[in-house]
Design brief:
Order of helices and strands: EEHHHHHHHH
Organism: Spodoptera littoralis
Subcellular location: Membrane
Strand order of the largest sheet: 1-2
Distance between the termini: 53 Å
Pfam families: ELO (PF01151)
Catalytic activity: a very-long-chain acyl-CoA + malonyl-CoA + H(+) = a very-long-chain 3-oxoacyl-CoA + CO2 + CoA
Keywords: Fatty acid biosynthesis, Fatty acid metabolism, Lipid biosynthesis, Lipid metabolism, Membrane, Transferase, Transmembrane, Transmembrane helix
């Protein structure tokens, strides 16, 4: 079934409806999005913790290695297709895609939309491996917000600027899941991930680049986002920056000795004990 896309150009007060690519998800509606995220939160906060309460944690070493390898490969693919797109249309686009061009933008965003859903499995693996300290507010907020933000862009405002966001975030995920994958190989490989603390710095730089891009795209584009939605995007990224910065300070600046790991890059889906044998 095709999902209807409302593409609103605020300056002209015009509302046009286009057909998106076919989708097998329920997420053509806000109700569908809410059901998916509610099911995710209930699963990782209630159902799976109850199931694991009197059980030993699963190791899942082979599964984790395969999962991380797939995430790296998928993220590399996203970086490639988005760099190709950016090369064709420039970083700051001066066009207002309509009709077939608009559907082309939707097709570019859709794989990233799928990727944000796959990221939810990080939390499932935390619960199955009893890494309860990893399931923090930041972790859940980040994952659910990214699904929601991508859905809003895909279904209502499929613009070129989000392709740049997807490219930057996918590049960071290449590094993150590569780190997770190397860590999952065992203590002998811990010496190769000395750069782990720099990943959070990369994430912080990513947020700065995204905010800068959204700001200039909004000012220079002939068809900017509606002001309310643009402000929502900016606020969301700023909250990410504050939360990840707080994680970095607590983890690496020594202001709190025994702070529990939060969702920055050290919310790893591998065993943190491996990282101590260095």
């Amino acid at each position: 079934m095709d999902a209807g896309l409302e593409y609103i150009v605020e300056d002209h007060g015009v509302k046009e409806t286009y057909l998106s690519i076919p989708t097998w998800t329920l997420q053509e509606t806000l109700v569908g999005l809410t059901l998916v995220l509610a099911a995710y939160l209930i699963l990782v906060m209630k159902i799976l913790p109850t199931y694991m309460k009197n059980r030993e944690p699963f190791q899942l070493k082979k599964l984790m290695l395969a999962y991380n390898a797939f995430q790296v490969a998928f993220s590399v693919y996203l970086v490639f297709i988005y760099l190709r797109y950016i090369y064709r249309f420039n970083v700051i686009t001066t066009r207002c895609p309509q009709g077939e061009d608009l559907q082309g933008v939707v097709r570019e965003i859709y794989p990233y939309f799928i990727a944000k859903h796959l990221d939810l499995f990080d939390t499932v693996f935390f619960v199955l491996r009893k890494k309860d300290n990893q399931i923090t507010f930041l972790h859940l907020y980040h994952h659910t917000s990214m699904v929601t933000w991508t859905w809003l862009h895909l279904m209502y405002h499929p613009t070129d600027n989000f392709v740049v966001v997807g490219m930057l975030n996918s590049f960071v995920h290449v590094l993150m899941y590569a780190y997770y994958g190397i860590s999952s190989l065992g203590p002998a490989y811990a010496k190769y991930i000395w750069w782990k603390k720099h990943l959070t710095k990369v994430q912080l730089v990513q947020f700065i680049l995204v905010v800068s891009h959204l700001h200039y795209q909004q000012k220079l584009s002939p068809c900017p986002l509606p002001s309310f939605f643009h402000n929502f995007c900016m606020l969301l990224i700023c909250t990410f920056f504050v939360l990840f910065m707080n994680f970095y300070i607590n983890s690496y600046r020594g202001k709190k000795k025994n702070v529990e790991k939060q969702n920055g890059v050290l919310e790893s889906n591998v065993d943190e004990r491996l990282l101590k044998t260095r």
